[in-house]
Design brief:
- The chain has helices at 28-41, 49-56, 64-79, 139-162, 178-185, 202-209, 233-242; strands at 83-85, 95-102, 113-120, 123-131, 171-175, 212-216, 245-247.
- With 249 residues, it is of the alpha/beta class.
- The mean pLDDT is 90.
- It comes from Cephalotus follicularis.
- This is RVT_2 domain-containing protein.
- Residues 1-20 are annotated as: Disordered.
Length: 249
């Protein structure tokens, strides 16, 4: 790996991993150890979180195609060995979040991927990338489920910060889907949304209580996009910088 060609992104935009049942099997123990090391690193390198989590889904029966994807992550890390999260001393202390979803992006079962991140001012303090538990039937549903997961994280963080004397009202959850925003603000249950799991509708209660608010953000400024799918080099570099990752000597 030391002499391998470096990669500027952890995963190519053309990569579509599946079970690859016809592919050549590899050493499961080796694959799992590589995934374990990378998962440990995601605690300080959120830029590789999506790629690592995607590869981690194939630990039961890893193939060569999965190993190639993991090796690319290591090549990217070799290209960016000095990247780290920067927490400026004089940053503001406003809690705000981003929520996004990749509709049906996982080829195996067509479940969507939720990606969220939470900031205090310009400081990234929490990030999340996970395959949704149910199959979403529309982009609106996938985005709404993601916003619900983000809301749950925000409520937990608000309670933790309250213990230190910090009170936040109407924490903005930035979403790039207007239909999901309207669904969260509309107290009427339409027939088209009844199939959405009830546990995600608690977001409406917190909107009405003034705990959070759904705010529209253009897709090109949706930082959480980096946690839902592979991005091209330019977009990936921009969002990586927005997360607060920079060269640390």
């Amino acid at each position: 790996m030391e002499s391998a060609k470096k990669s500027k992104t952890p995963m190519s935009t053309t990569t579509k991993l599946d079970k690859d049942e016809q592919g050549k099997s590899i050493d499961q123990k080796l694959y799992r150890s590589m995934i374990g090391s990378l998962l440990y690193l995601t605690a300080s390198r959120p830029d590789i979180l999506f790629s690592v989590c995607l590869c981690a889904r194939f630990q039961a029966c890893p193939k060569e195609s999965h190993l190639h994807a993991v090796k690319r992550i290591f090549k990217y890390l070799a290209y960016t060995p000095t990247l780290g999260l920067w927490y400026p001393r004089k940053s503001s202390f406003n809690l705000h979040t981003y929520s996004d979803a990749d509709f049906g992006g996982y080829k195996v079962d067509r479940k969507s991927t939720t990606g969220t991140c939470q900031f205090l001012g310009n400081m990234l303090i929490s990030w999340f990338s996970k395959k949704q538990n149910s199959v979403a039937l529309s982009t609106t549903e996938a985005e709404y489920i993601a916003a619900g997961s983000c809301c749950a994280q925000v409520m937990w963080m608000k309670q933790q910060l309250l213990d230190y004397g910090f009170i936040f009202e109407k924490v903005p959850i930035r979403c790039d889907n207007t239909s999901a925003i309207f669904l969260g603000k509309n107290p009427v249950h339409h027939s088209r949304t009844k199939h959405i799991d009830i546990r995600y509708h608690f977001i409406k209660d917190h909107i009405e209580k003034g705990d959070i608010e759904l705010v529209f953000v253009p897709t090109e400024k949706q930082v959480a996009d980096i946690f839902t799918k592979p991005l091209d080099e330019q977009t990936f570099s921009k969002f990586r910088l927005d997360l607060g990752l920079c060269e640390i000597d």
